[in-house]
Design brief:
By secondary structure, this protein is an alpha+beta fold. About 45% of the residues lie in helices and about 25% in strands. The protein is built from twelve helices and 15 strands. The chain is rod-shaped. The relative contact order is 0.05.
């Protein structure tokens, strides 16, 4: 059965009525004088009125602020004059507060196409605008905070693809942001030797959802250098709470680990120092008995006897052993020198003769007669002299002469650029005539 024109008109009217009654948007039609010809229930309610109160009235009944009324009238006239559709946002002060609307206005034409008014659909977008502003502020606050963070921040999706990095992370690994965004495992900052373990840990995190509070990794920079990082990770979720990735902070702990290692070494050295101190004390007690007996033995023989010479050498060796004990005690106290004031000539002669004993080398001394006394750790200085003489001895395996010179000098006159304080000094020079080691 064919539909009559009346049926079609009835269906169109019912469709229009359904649209007007069911929509939450404001729908209205105005004539050329700005009077309302039609307003739906939702639209009238948005303005605190009923449709019957608005029909035949203009905007003056709504008590809009002057600037709002002016904006509405201007847009109505623009649509009427241009014959074009116009979409714009407008904020209106209502009794319940400020509300923002998105309005679309089009020409309302008669059957001949002549513009006889304005038809408009207006939607309240206040909540959307508030959310947009909240997101804008969050982004405005978050961006400078993330950029100012010393720790690196990076986020990956469930496939491990990098979707975000902050400037500190880029600086940490040496790659630019555009080089990292979109990177998929294995990532360039994973060292080859750590790649399998890091990738396996990531797979476990994604599959199980379990994340240790912190974990340590070793990363590599773009220049190939390695560094240690402490990683703190959390799930990255969407607005519905679904897990979409992982966000992590990265802290470079390389220097911290070095300091921890140094502290461990320092602790070991302290323990070693205590042990050395104990040995030195016991060794010193033994030497005291030996040196006492040597002195008694020397008193029992004549200085010209051969045994006297032997005892004298034994006493000299014991004295050197006592010097080693003093060095051990110095080490036990943290290496601080035990300074005394003494004449350097005797120490030079004793240490040089002892170091050259049993060799084919000769020694030659050029020591200033009025050599000033020095203030130093006699044990440490004696060890330095020994080492220099031993080096000279190794440089002359076929024999030669070790020359030892000592003279007084004044700082600023003869010390050159040594950077010494304004004091008196004694310069010691030890040389050889060998070809070198």
């Amino acid at each position: 059965m064919k539909k009559t024109l009346e049926d079609k008109l009835r269906e169109s009217a019912n469709l229009l009525k359904a649209i007007l009654e069911e929509t939450k948007d404001t729908i209205f039609i105005k004539d050329l004088q700005g009077r309302y010809l039609l307003v739906n229930d939702a639209g009238a309610a948005n303005f605190g009125k009923t449709p019957q109160e608005l029909i035949g009235k203009d905007n003056s009944i709504l008590d809009f602020p002057p600037e709002t009324a002016k904006k509405i009238e201007q847009t109505d006239q623009q649509v009427i004059l241009t014959g074009e559709t116009l979409t714009y946002e407008i904020t209106v002060n209502l009794e319940e507060g400020k509300r923002t609307f998105l309005s679309t206005k089009s020409p309302y034409r008669d059957h001949s196409g002549k513009t006889i008014g304005v038809i408009a659909i207006t939607r309240d977008i206040t909540e959307r605008k508030l959310m947009e502003e909240k997101l804008r502020l969050e982004h405005a606050y978050r961006k400078p905070i993330e950029e100012a963070m010393l720790a690196g921040v990076a986020a990956v999706n469930l496939e491990g693809e990098i979707i975000y990095v902050n400037p500190s992370f880029c600086e940490m690994v040496g790659w630019k942001e555009e080089e990292l965004i979109g990177s998929k495992p294995p990532h360039p900052f994973w060292p080859p030797e750590e790649m399998n373990s890091i990738q396996e840990l990531f797979r476990k995190r994604v599959s199980s959802g379990k994340m240790p509070k912190t974990v340590e990794y070793r990363f590599q920079r773009k220049n190939g250098s390695r560094f240690d990082v402490l990683v703190l990770s959390s799930p990255l979720t969407d607005g519905h709470g679904n897990k979409i990735g992982i966000v992590s902070t990265f802290t470079d702990i390389t220097e911290k680990k070095k300091m921890e290692e140094e502290l461990i070494k320092a602790g070991k050295l302290e323990s070693l120092g205590l042990l050395a101190g104990g040995i030195a004390h016991d060794f010193n007690n033994i030497l005291t008995g030996i040196m006492g007996n040597l002195s008694l033995a020397k008193a029992s023989v004549q200085p010209g006897d051969e045994i006297f010479t032997i005892l004298n050498e034994a006493e000299s060796a014991s004295d050197r052993a006592a010097g080693l004990a003093r060095q051990l005690l110095t080490f036990a106290k943290g290496g601080k020198p035990v300074k005394t004031r003494f004449l350097l000539k005797e120490l030079l002669e004793k240490e040089v003769h002892f170091s050259l004993s049993g060799s084919h080398l000769q020694s030659r001394f050029e020591i200033q007669n009025d050599l000033w006394p020095v203030e130093a750790d006699i044990g440490q200085l004696g060890q330095v002299i020994q080492n220099l003489v031993i080096n000279a001895k190794q440089a002359m395996p076929e024999g030669g002469t070790v020359s030892v010179k000592a003279k007084n000098i004044l700082q600023g006159v003869e010390t050159g650029e040594l950077g010494l304080k304004e004091e008196k000094y004694v310069r010691v020079s030890i040389g050889d005539n060998g070809p070198g080691i």
